[in-house]
Design a protein that fits this description.
By secondary structure, this protein is α/β, with parallel strands linked by helices. The protein is 35% helix and 24% strand. The chain folds into two domains: 121 residues, PAS domain (Beta-Lactamase, 2-Layer Sandwich), CATH 3.30.450; 133 residues, Rossmann fold. The protein is elongated.
Length: 263
């Protein structure tokens, strides 16, 4: 396949994805810019391609070195996911859920990054109305173990689950989650990210957790690109999955669905 064919396929693929999809070179400069990225930020492709992706960050985040730190973490861990502020072409700020993942060629050589941003501004400051799904309330303070390497994600999700009436405990990686399960035999559901540092991914954590507690319910959370793990056979196709970013009411619905399932 020649370069023109590959470039055309990349553009078709990016156009089919939701959210703002961007391809970056190894230094973080924008290589390719989707229509979703244009609609979200106000930049046309010819205005931003070749510029460093940090131009979308706030000045405070740039001064704190967050863009460079996110690239380093992506390479070290295999993914970097965060919620934060970004800046449009017109200078207005908005809240996004973003994810960076490294890209490798057919020889396994690192060639750049893929970036996905989704606007969650409308979700910020959501009220209790978001949780009014018409579903039955939790039974007798069911307990949920939240496993995610992102501290902010753990805090937000734990707070939301508590507001629904659940008890929560949290862990930052797989080994810590298994230690928590060993100490706390009354956990009803494991809510775990798919890709995590610490030597164990979400599938491995779930398998070991179910050996410890066979009746434990499991719900995986995943960014858009990580959903491919389901199709690659690394997680059973019947696994319950909640794709990030998600609204508070969708979290409430999915948690209750898994807890009430017979599987």
């Amino acid at each position: 396949m020649n370069n023109i064919d590959r470039e055309g396929l990349v553009q078709i693929f990016m156009a089919s994805l939701p959210g703002a999809v961007t391809l970056l070179d190894v230094d973080g400069n924008v290589l390719s810019w989707s229509a979703g990225a244009r609609d979200l930020t106000g930049y046309a492709a010819d205005e931003i391609e070749g510029r460093h992706f940090s131009c979308l960050y706030t000045q405070d985040d740039i001064a704190a070195g967050k863009p460079a730190a996110s690239l380093r973490r992506t390479l070290a861990v295999g993914r970097h996911e965060e919620t934060g502020r970004r800046v449009r072409k017109d200078g207005t700020e908005f809240e996004v859920h973003s994810m960076l993942m490294p890209l490798h060629d057919s020889k396994g050589e690192f060639v750049g990054f893929s970036s996905l941003m989704r606007n969650i501004t409308s979700s910020i400051g959501a009220t209790a109305d978001d949780a009014r799904t018409g579903l039955a309330p939790p039974r007798a303070r069911e307990m949920i173990l939240v496993v995610d390497d992102d501290e902010q994600v753990r805090e937000v999700v734990s707070h939301q689950l508590t507001s629904f009436g659940y008890e929560t405990v949290v862990a930052s990686n797989g080994p810590e989650a298994l230690e928590m399960l060993a100490r706390e035999p009354h956990i009803d559901l494991l809510l775990t990210d798919v890709v995590m540092p610490g030597g164990m991914n979400g599938r491995e954590v779930a398998e070991e957790a179910r050996r410890m507690q066979p009746n434990l319910k499991v719900l995986f959370t995943s960014g858009y690109f990580e959903g491919a793990l389901l199709r690659n056979g690394k997680i059973d196709a019947s696994a319950q999955l909640l794709v990030k970013p998600y609204r508070k009411n969708r979290l409430a619905e999915k948690i209750l669905e898994v807890l009430r399932s017979t599987a």
